[in-house]
Amino acid sequence: MHTLTTIKKDIMRIREILIFTFVVTLLSCHHRDMKITMTKDQIAQLDSLKNTYKFTDKDWDARGLIPSAKSMSDNMDGLLNECLSDLVALENKDLTDSELKNILNRGLKRFNKLDYDTEGREFIADKFNEISKILRIDFNEDLNIWLYGRLIVKLRKIFNKEDSEIIESMMIQCTKCQDTLTKAITRIEENIPEYWTVVKCNKCGELNLFPAERNIKESRFINCTWIQSFAESEFDSIQINKKLNELKINN
Ligand SMILES: [Zn+2]
């Protein structure tokens, strides 16, 4: 009898610990504050970008521009590499999205805007956009502010409903072309059940699946187009993947 009570007590204690751990995990995993560590692959991509000369005459040409003076291109490449070095140095560190954005913003500030014309600035912004895609963060608004100024970005938001405030973004990589597909959540409401979302990649046309999420009232999609949503109550993860494959065949 005695041992049975002890076992019971132990089980209770384990249960308590498990519940505690679960609650702590829930609290610490709140999406916006979630810390992530860059993967080896992300570091390798940043490193390879750093070791590539990013503003060759050919690159200017491809944008329909007259190549800038070599000294100007060298300067741009060097400044961008400083930002890439900052990022690579953070290998194995836990970082939030906003910490990563701060590093990119610091990188942008190294460029004196007055040194460049609009095309030059857009070229720089594109490179930062490329970095943000490697990091899988949404850096568009910061880039627009840097390019066009806070006022214009604000005005555009007022006049363009498409630009309604993004509460949270979820990003996945296209399984075929690896482009970053974003589900931008613009309205949340309680008691909306979980839905899987199937989208079509705008670049290569492949169908992709966003994980099931609850309480999504409104969202819009970047780099992809909404195709169909499926209730999580009707499709578990195995069934939804089967469904996705079926859709792919008919696509
Ligand atoms: Zn694709």
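^ zinc ion complex. The beta strands are 36-37, 94-95, 168-173, 180-188, 195-201, 207-213, 216-222, 224-231. Confidence is low (pLDDT under 50) at residues 28-32.
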